[in-house]
């Protein structure tokens, strides 16, 4: 077990598309890495299986290289208009840092999609974002009706949608009993996965209509959902099982609140929701990348141990967790650095490849990381998609 775990740990930091060493345990990592299959091979195989879907004819041109040429001004000089990016949960932590990072380039209008309007306004001001670079709009992912209202309001604004970042999340590590969304889904999977799933499914059409040269749908994943890493082996481990709980609606009524049908366990529900996030990104890629040219990505931004994600944890944990990550695992990143990383996935010209789970090494260089067996299981991704479609009323 010890040896197996250390191989797992090493692999978390070692798999690099260009074969370079990455984080933390770099001196020993490459020789111990055991997940030999590069992500690109999975992707090619997956693309072959891709299901045809109907997409409006004028939108089928794949534009994966961001050539900044949208409108020609009278003097023939090509200019790129400001992009519009929706970021969910931009009122704190990673979402706020990403909003700031994109806003300060002056190239983006950040739509901060937040459940607490005033908190979002105050947060934007507190990090010095200037008014012309952001718009706050109300969104509560714990209600499908709120998602619909958000989309209506966004469409009424008549802004084109160029990128969408599914970032918001909740984590209930110590809850003994489940809580539920307005639609009766267990709250962590309901907010982190189903709310975002519904929102992205509906907003894909809007992105397809946009003329922006490099459109991206980013869903934030995490190392703790990937059991091919040490962090992913800290109990409770993510495991979606045969999806019987998801198929039962996660309502806790007559069925369980957990995706795998087991007993409620808050920390596991969060990790399971992250697996759904990473599977959803890949399923989007398989279904829509070729036809729409949209880049679908996920990422692990590093351990941002200081954010509000841990607000429900015991105070001792909140005190010890940041130094533990800083000095022991060395996985710690500041909110600012994590924000720059996610901003790269939204706008960097070198990160246009679709279907990728991005991570960063100790020198903050991005690399295409390997997902765990479950988080890269194409069959499971398809089932999660179909069951989620049913739950949110799209199938
Ligand atoms: C779970 O427990 C709960 O079960 C779950 O309900 C939920 O609450 C969840 O918080 C979310 O936590 C996790 C618990 C069990 O882990 C702990 O955090 C307990 C601390 C164990 C002490 C280890 C000393 C580490 C250094 C001190 C810094 C402490 C900061 C952490 C915050 C503590 C707050 C109380 O975890 C375990 O069972 C521990 C075993 C983890 C297994 C990991 C897989 C194999 C590891 C192999 C060892 C490799 C060594 C790597 C070296 C890393 C350095 C520690
Ligand atoms: P925060 O708690 O700081 O941010 C989460 C955001 O989600 C908050 O703005 C919160 O709003 C919002 N939110 C929560 N529930 C809802 C809801 N029902 N509707 C709309 N918005 C909601 O945590 P982080 O910044 O750490 O988390 C951001 C993302 O990063 C998550 O997807 C998380 O899984 C991921 N992640 C985090 C890591 C970390 O180490 N922190 C590591 C890996 C991934 P409000 O401000 O009102 O509370
Ligand atoms: Mg983890 C070896 C590296 C490593 C990394 C990168 C993380 C990230 N963690 C690591 C190791 C360990 N953690 C070890 C060895 C332990 C046992 C002491 C440990 C414990 C631990 C706990 C109790 N870690 C945690 C928790 C949480 O409650 C966090 C969690 O699981 O939330 C779901 C967490 C995290 N560790 C991480 C990261 C990024 C988290 C935050 C959760 C996330 O968004 O994925």
Automatic annotation (TrEMBL):
GO cellular component: chloroplast
EC number(s) per entry: 1.3.1.33
Localisation per UniProt entry: Plastid, Chloroplast
Catalytically driven reaction(s): chlorophyllide a + NADP(+) = protochlorophyllide a + NADPH + H(+)
Entry keywords, A to Z: Chlorophyll biosynthesis, Chloroplast, NADP, Oxidoreductase, Photosynthesis, Plastid, Transit peptide
GO biological process, one term: photosynthesis
Function: Phototransformation of protochlorophyllide (Pchlide) to chlorophyllide (Chlide).
Protein family (similarity comment): Belongs to the short-chain dehydrogenases/reductases (SDR) family. POR subfamily.
Protein name according to UniProt: NADPH-protochlorophyllide oxidoreductase
């Amino acid at each position: 077990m010890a040896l197996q775990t250390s191989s797992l740990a090493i692999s978390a930091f070692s798999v690099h598309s260009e074969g370079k060493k990455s984080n933390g345990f770099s001196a020993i990592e490459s020789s111990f890495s055991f997940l030999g299959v590069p992500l690109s091979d999975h992707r090619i195989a997956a693309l072959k299986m891709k299901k045809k879907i109907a997409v409006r004819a004028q939108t089928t041109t794949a534009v994966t290289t961001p050539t900044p040429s949208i409108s020609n001004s009278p003097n023939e000089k090509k200019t790129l208009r400001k992009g519009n990016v929706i970021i969910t949960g931009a009122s704190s932590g990673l979402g706020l840092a990403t909003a700031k990072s994109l806003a300060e380039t002056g190239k983006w209008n950040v739509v901060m999609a937040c459940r607490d309007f005033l908190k979002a306004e105050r947060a934007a001001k507190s990090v010095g974002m200037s008014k012309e670079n952001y718009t706050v709009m109300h969104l509560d992912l714990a209600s499908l009706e709120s998602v619909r209202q958000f989309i209506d309001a966004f469409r009424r604004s008549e802004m084109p949608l160029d990128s969408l970042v599914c970032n918001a999340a909740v984590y209930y590590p110590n809850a003994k009993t489940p809580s539920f969304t307005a639609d009766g889904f267990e709250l962590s999977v309901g907010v982190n996965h189903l709310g975002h799933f519904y929102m992205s499914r509906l907003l894909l059409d809007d992105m397809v209509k946009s003329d922006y040269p490099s459109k991206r749908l980013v869903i934030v994943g995490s190392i703790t959902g990937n059991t091919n890493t040490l962090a992913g082996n800290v109990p409770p481990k993510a495991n979606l099982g045969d999806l019987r709980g998801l198929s039962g609606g996660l309502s806790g009524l007559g069925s369980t609140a957990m995706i795998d049908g087991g007993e409620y366990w808050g920390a596991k529900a969060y990790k399971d929701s992250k697996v759904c996030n990473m599977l959803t990104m890949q399923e989007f890629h398989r279904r829509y990348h070729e036809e729409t040219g949209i880049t679908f990505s996920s990422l692990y931004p590093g351990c941002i141990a200081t954010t509000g994600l841990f607000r429900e944890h015991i105070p001792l944990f909140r005190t010890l967790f940041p130094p533990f990550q800083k000095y022991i695992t060395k996985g710690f990143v500041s909110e600012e650095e994590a924000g720059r990383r996610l901003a790269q996935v939204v706008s960097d010209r070198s990160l246009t490849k679709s279907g990728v789970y991005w991570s960063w090494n100790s020198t903050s260089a991005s690399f295409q990381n390997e997902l765990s067996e479950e988080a890269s299981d194409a069959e499971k991704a398809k089932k999660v998609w179909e069951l989620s479609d049913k739950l949110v009323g799209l199938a």
